[in-house]
Design goal:
Elements (H helix, E strand, L loop, with lengths): L1 E5 L11 E4 L6 H7 L4 H7 L13 E4 L8 E5 L4 E2 H7 L4 H7 L6 E2 L4 E5 L48 E8 L16 H6 L7 H16 L3 E8 L4 H7 L10 E4 L3 H13 L3 E4 L14 E3 L4 H10 L9 E6 L3 H18 L7 E2 L15 E6 L3 H12 L7 E5 L11 H6 L3 E4 L8 H14 L5 H20 L21 E3 L5 E3 L3 E6 L2 E4 L2
Parallel strand pairs: 8-9, 8-10, 10-11, 11-12, 12-19, 13-14, 13-15, 15-16
Antiparallel strand pairs: 1-9, 2-3, 4-7, 5-6, 17-20, 18-19, 20-21
Helix pairs in contact: 6-14, 9-10
C-alpha cells in the first residue's frame, strides 16, 4: 500500500446563494418573478444557460439580495409588446399595464418595464447554517435521490473544503506478485513492459498523482491509498477487513467482475462512492446507489446515433447491418425506437444480416446511411471492402459500432471514402490547449507520451475529488456544478431510484482530411 498526503494553504470561500430546481412549465422569466430578481441578474448568475433555454431538473443559482419592491424590472433589448412581456412572465396583461401607465401596447428598446410580484416576506434564517459553519465530518452521509434533491440543496452551495483531509482509495490490478523478473539481456525495456497488460493502464496511476498535485495547489488535503487488486476471492476478503478502508471518502477502481461486486457491497454498506472506471455493463449500478459508472450507457448509444441522421427521414436511405447476436438485437430495437421518436416513422424492414445483401438495398437518388452493429474485425473489414466498391455510384455514410477506432487493421482509405462516423467513450482533441498543457506536464514528469488511460485518470480524479471537496459525500447530486471540464469525455450522469449513476455521453465523430472532427 502506498500513502500520499497532500496539503497546502486554504482559499477564500464563496458566499452562499439560493438554488432553484426547474419544474414543469417554468421559464427563466417566471423564475425571476418568483424570486423577485431581474431577468438579466438571473442570467448573469447562470452563464451556462444560453438564450434562456432551461429544462426540467436544471439547477439555477438565484442572486442573493433583498428586493422589497412590489415589482421587478424588465429591461427591453428590442421593441416588445406588453402582451409578449406578460406572456413570458406568466402575468395578466392588465396587471402589467396597471403598474406601467406610461406605456402603450409596444415598448421600445432599452426601456424598463415593471413586473408585479408577490408581497415581500422576510426570510427565516434562524435555522439556516452556511456551509462555512458546518464541520466536514458532520456533513450528511446518506445518499439522496434526485427526487429528494431539494431537501438537501444546501449541499450544492459550497466552496473548497480546505480544512478536512479527504481519503481516496485507488484499486488497480497491479499484479505485483506476477512481475518477478527483470527483462532478458537482449530484451528492450519497452518490449518487456508491453508483455504485461497492466502497463497499458499504469498511466492511470501516474496521472492520478499528477491530478492530486494540481488539487494540492488549490488548497486540498488529500491522502491517497493504493491497493493492488487481484481476482482472488480470499485476497479481496482480506483487503475489505482493512481497518482504514471504511474511512475512505471515495474509491476509484479498475476491478475484475467478482472483486467489483464485493467492493460495491462494501461501499454501499459504508456509504462510500465507488467509481467504476472500465466496465461496459450497465447492470453494475443496479441496486448500488453508491456506484458511479464511467463507461457510457449502452442505450444512449442509440440516442447519439439517431441524433446525427438528417433532419428529414425522406432525404436518406437507412439500413442497419447487424451481426446475429442478442445484444445487437436489443440495440437494433433501441435505434428503431429513437428513429420513431425523431421522425414518427417505423422501420421494420431495415435490418440486414448479411454483408452481401447491403448492395441490393443501396439507393442512387439519395444518401445511404448504414449503421453497422458488428464488433467482429474480419466481418467489419469485409463490409467496408464491399461498400468501398460502391462509392463511385452511391453516396454512402457508415456509422460504426463503438470502438471501431481501436481496431488497427481497418483500412483508413475505406473509412475515409465511406465518410465513417465513429462512436467512442473517449475523444481527445489534440488541438485543445488544456490537452496540450496536460501532455507537456505528463512528458516533463514521466518522460513518456500519455495514453488514453492517462487522460482518463486525470479527468476522473480531478472531477470527482473537486466534487467531494465542494459538496461533501452527496456530491453526485450536485455533479452539474462541478467546474472541471474533462479532456477525454464529457460527463453527464443520470440514475434511477435505488441505482447508481451512469455516464450518458457518447462521443460521435468523423474523419475529415484524416483529422478527427467531433459531431456530438
Amino acid at each position: 500500500m502506498v500513502v500520499t498526503s497532500l496539503a497546502t494553504t486554504p482559499e477564500i470561500k464563496i458566499e452562499e446563494t439560493d438554488i432553484h430546481i426547474v419544474k414543469a412549465g417554468e421559464t427563466m422569466y417566471s423564475i425571476a418573478k418568483t424570486h423577485r430578481v431581474r431577468l438579466d441578474s438571473l442570467q448573469l448568475a447562470n452563464p451556462k444557460i444560453i438564450d434562456h433555454h432551461i429544462a426540467i431538473g436544471d439547477t439555477l443559482i438565484i442572486p442573493d439580495y433583498v428586493n422589497k419592491n412590489s415589482f421587478i424590472e424588465h429591461k427591453t433589448t428590442e421593441k416588445e409588446k406588453i402582451s409578449e412581456i406578460a406572456f413570458n412572465y406568466q402575468t395578466p396583461v392588465q396587471e402589467i399595464k396597471n403598474v406601467n401607465p406610461n406605456y402603450s401596447n409596444t415598448v421600445g428598446s432599452g426601456k424598463i418595464v415593471k413586473i408585479p410580484v408577490a408581497p415581500f416576506q422576510e426570510k427565516d434564517t434562524t435555522s439556516v447554517a452556511t456551509q462555512e459553519s458546518i464541520p466536514h465530518d458532520t456533513l450528511p452521509t446518506t445518499s439522496t435521490s434526485p427526487q429528494d434533491l431539494t431537501s438537501s440543496i444546501s449541499s450544492c452551495i459550497g466552496g473548497w473544503n480546505t480544512e478536512s483531509i479527504f481519503k481516496i482509495a485507488l484499486m488497480m490490478p497491479f499484479n505485483t506478485n506476477e512481475i518477478t523478473t527483470l527483462p532478458e539481456k537482449n530484451q528492450s525495456i519497452k518490449t518487456a513492459i508491453e508483455d504485461f497488460p497492466i502497463f497499458n493502464f499504469f498511466q492511470f496511476y501516474q496521472s492520478t498523482l499528477l491530478a492530486l498535485e494540481t488539487l494540492k495547489d488549490k488548497g486540498l488535503h488529500i491522502e491517497l491509498y493504493v491497493y493492488d487488486i487481484t481476482d482472488n476471492s480470499s485476497s479481496i476478503d482480506q483487503l475489505l477487513q482493512n481497518e482504514t478502508l471504511p474511512q475512505m471518502d471515495l474509491i476509484v477502481g479498475l476491478l475484475y467482475k467478482d472483486p467489483f461486486f464485493k467492493v460495491a457491497d462494501f461501499a454501499r454498506n459504508h456509504n462510500i462512492s465507488l467509481i467504476n472506471v472500465n466496465s461496459v455493463r450497465d447492470e453494475l449500478v443496479q441496486g448500488y446507489p453508491n456506484v458511479i459508472k464511467m463507461m457510457p450507457q449502452r442505450s444512449n448509444f442509440a440516442v447519439s446515433v439517431v441524433s446525427v441522421l438528417p433532419d428529414t427521414a425522406q432525404t436518406f436511405n437507412l439500413m442497419i447491418v447487424q451481426k446475429k447476436d442478442s445484444i445487437f438485437s436489443i440495440i437494433d430495437q433501441e435505434i428503431k425506437n429513437e428513429y420513431f421518436k425523431k421522425y414518427s416513422l417505423t422501420i421494420y424492414d431495415s435490418t440486414i444480416y448479411s454483408n452481401y445483401n447491403v448492395t441490393k438495398k443501396l439507393k442512387t437518388d439519395r444518401p445511404n446511411y448504414i449503421i453497422a452493429l458488428n464488433n467482429n474485425t474480419a466481418s467489419i473489414m469485409d463490409l467496408l471492402r464491399i461498400l468501398d466498391k460502391q462509392k463511385n455510384d452511391h453516396e454512402i455514410r457508415i456509422i460504426g459500432y463503438p470502438n471501431w477506432d481501436n481496431i488497427p487493421t481497418l483500412d483508413d482509405n475505406h473509412l475515409q471514402h465511406l465518410n465513417t462516423i465513429f462512436s467512442s467513450p473517449y475523444f481527445i482533441d489534440y488541438k485543445d490547449e488544456h490537452v496540450l498543457h496536460f501532455i507537456r506536464s505528463f512528458r516533463e514528469k514521466y518522460n513518456a507520451e500519455p495514453n488514453r488511460w492517462a487522460f482518463q485518470g486525470y479527468d476522473i480524479i480531478s472531477y470527482f475529488v473537486e466534487g467531494l471537496a465542494k459538496f461533501g459525500k452527496d456530491f453526485m447530486n450536485c455533479s452539474e456544478h462541478i467546474d472541471y471540464q474533462p479532456m477525454s469525455n464529457d460527463f453527464d450522469f443520470k440514475n434511477q431510484p435505488n441505482d447508481g449513476f451512469i455516464n450518458q455521453h457518447w462521443n460521435i465523430y468523423t474523419i475529415e482530411n484524416f483529422e478527427p472532427k467531433k459531431l456530438h
